Amino acid sequence: MCFNHTHNSTPKPVVTEISETSSTSRRAFVRKIAAGSAVVATGAGLTSCATNPETGRKQFVGLAPGGESLSSMAAASWAEMKQQTPTSNDPRYTRRLANIGSRISRGAGRANQTWDYAVFDTDTKNAFVLPGNRVGFYKGMMDFTDNDDQIAGIMGHEVGHVAGKHAQERMSLQMASQVAVVGGSVLGSTQFSKKCNSLAGSQRESCMNSANRNAQMLVQALGLGTQIGLVLPYSRKHESESDLLGVNYMYKAGYDPYQAVKLWEKMAADNPNRQPEFMSTHPDPANRAQTIDAYIRRQDKMGSQGFKDIRT
After folding, report:
1. Which helix (H) or strand (E) segment is 137 a member of?
2. Class of residue 49 by CB neighbours under 10 A (exposed 0-12, middle 13-18, buried 19+)
3. Of 21, 193, 198, 283, which residue is the least packed, with the fewest Cβ within 10 Å?
4. Start-to-end CA span in the chain (Å)
5. In terms of pLDDT, which residue wins out, 309 or 49?
6. 3-state secondary structure at position 242
7. Cβ distance 253 to 99 under 8 Å?
8. Residue 59: enclosing H or E segment and its boundaries?
9. How far apart are CA 225 and CA 220, in angstroms?
10. How far is CA 190 from CA 176, 193, 268, in A?
11. 93, pLDDT greater than 90
12. Measured distance CA(65)–CA(29) in Å, rounded
């Protein structure tokens, strides 16, 4: 894996999305990627790292599919989502989102890239980004916000996932964790088999049945361990990193960064009974608001040099 010796514990921050509500299509996209690349993962080195110029952070991205392959698979998932969920043609939503997206992409230094925006006509409070700069907002999310600045905060967050290469990093980590689980299962099964082979008759049969049950329990335990210990924390890291990148892009695009704080305070009030953060792929909304607020205050103290960089 990659190790970052130059950064402290301040959060920096696939389908990557603003909240934990996810559709079948997005989950299917991630499963499709992982299944198609698992064979590659078993034969690849697990130490392939690259430094992201946007954040200065080393990332483990060596197991993710190549850019064109990833984008084409995302395009298929994007088309499938549009077939399954109605999209809005209301210019009050589509034009508004496109205008905000255009400003944020300029603020992120990515105005020369092609961006595809869609507004899904449901009450879901969510937004997401797919590889290939495909950004989806739900009408429920746009209606939930108080102003364009808060929508810009969400848009900046999604663009932050692209700049942070979070989809590639998360896929690499998930595939690496799958390799670890399979390896642990094989090792456990081998140990049980050696014990059972020394027995005979009904004792051997009983031992093998017990070994199979223990092997299944081992896989479940290992899977839970890698999920809570590796994948979920990295997911939260990505979300936090995107929050701060998004604040930078808001500032550079001329939006009020403090509206990102207001947005997450509102999200926290709207969702008071969420699951414990250590079991979640997303940081607690109240914690996100506090982290963003503290970050903005630090940048304000830096005067005109503020908001230049999230490397802290």
Report:
1. strand 134-138
2. middle
3. 198
4. 21
5. 49
6. helix
7. no
8. strand 58-60
9. 9
10. 21, 5, 48
11. yes
12. 13
Q: Quote the tokens at residue 277.
A: 């953060």
Residue with tokens 């848009």: 155
Total number of domains constituting the chain: 1
Q: How confident is the model at residue 269 (pLDDT cuts 50, 70, 90)?
A: very high
**193, part of any domain:** no
Q: Is residue 71 part of a domain?
A: yes
| Secondary structure element (H or E) that encloses residue 293, with its range | helix 285-301
Question: Is residue 283 domain-resident?
Answer: yes
188/13: higher pLDDT = 188
The phi-psi region of residue 56 (left if phi > 0; otherwise alpha if psi is between -120 and 50; otherwise beta) is: left
Tell me if residue 129 falls in helix, strand or coil.
Answer: strand
Burial call 13-32: b when 16+ CB within 10 Å, e when fewer: bbbbbbbeeebebbeebbee
- What is the enclosing helix (H) or strand (E) of 95? helix 91-107
Query: Is 212 part of a structural domain of the chain?
Result: no
Q: Which domain holds residue 126?
A: 16-169+230-305
CB 250 within 8 A of CB 295: no
Return the structure tokens found at 50: 């690259």
